[in-house]
Amino acid sequence: MTDSQRKTFEIGQILRVEIEKIAHGGHFIARYEGAVLFVRHAIPGELVEVKITGIEKSLMRADVVAVIEASPSRVVPACKFAHAGGCGGCDFQHIQIQRQRELKSEVIAEQFARIAKMEIDVEVEEVSTPLHWRTRYAATTSTTGELGFKAAASTKVIAIDSCPVLLPEIDLPTLPRADIAASSRVDVALSSRGERMVGVSKLRNSRTEQNNPVAIIEGKKSMFFDVATSFGESSYQVSQGSFWQGNVNAPARLVEAVLDYAELREGDHVMDLYGGVGLFAAAALPFIGASGKVDLLEASSSATRDAAQNFRSTKNVAIHTVDVAKALRNFESADVVLLDPPRTGAGSNVIEAIVALAPRSIIYIACDPAALARDTGYLNTQGFHLRAIRAFDLFPMTHHVESVALFTADEVS
Fold this sequence. Notes:
The longest helix has 20 residues, at 97-116. The chain folds into three domains: 3-74, CATH 2.40.50.140; 116-127 and 224-409, 3-Layer(aba) Sandwich (Rossmann fold), CATH 3.40.50; 136-220, no CATH class. It starts with a helix and ends with a strand. By secondary structure, it is an alpha/beta fold. The protein has an eight-stranded mixed beta sheet, sandwiched between helices. It has a six-stranded antiparallel beta sheet with strand order 9-8-7-10-11-12, with no helix packed on it. A five-stranded mixed barrel has the order 1-2-3-5-4. It is 21% helix and 33% strand. A hairpin with an 8-residue loop joins strand 20 and strand 21 (402-409).
């Protein structure tokens, strides 16, 4: 967008545009007099009126304020707060659920085509019901004590009386409001055994990087989750500060997919990178046997304390509280690498260190398709190529999607 174009537009200006396609991050592409708009709350093919919310160097951001010609996939949101200026948690509630998954498939394909220079076609698989699937969340109280979630790209707290994506047992009306002060973060979780935890912390001071301590006002700091799959069943201790998948069915579905791709063998050495509390490590143990070994690398001390408890009776799992990128250089080889990095992905340094281990296969669990596509490019240059990929709708009503990808080295004749 040129300087003269930027001067033509103003924040709050209303434009009529046709939505072209979906973009990464839950936005949709439209154009107006040569300017590109990233639009929220739209669907491809619609004719809409949008309000400009941001003007940047190469694009503008906007929200749909009126639908002139609606897509057949447009539905009434299940939540009254799912609209422009409302709660920022669900950005796809206005889209029919099957169409949501199709759009997520398009995003994955577009990211691979643009970043990895690869053509792929992957179906986003249903994992749970569209509503009442979430077992963990973080809410916020405003300075006046109203409880809710933040608006999109904002610190403003939208007061919420009920959230339809949460399991009913942990919905906001069930929380002990008298024990929750203003300007607080509220962490809530429900285990597979029905244990409920509510933790409260004062919002972090923006001048310091230190997180304020969490006070458990209901339940215990640690809960237990049972994960049953066709491969077996494992149980896990998960503390308040440790990561665990939020979708009630996600742990089992991901374990199934990872084990299917890994094809583990007796005696295998498995590297479980960013291994958390040991979700995949525990599932791998029956396949590698007593002669096999798992090295679990994780930076979170909360997660590794849980992992130590989860594997307290297991001799062939070594748990390392480390910076994964740095610690990988201390290992010489591995048969299988399980890679579940944060949203930013693994990055070139981690990929290079993994390849140096000469594994038989790498199974990459990714929550961001752009990061996965970028790291796929790094793996390609190192001689490892994508052999299979699956995608899972772990976050219905949002633009987020989870992928599990299998990479193996080129065969040398």
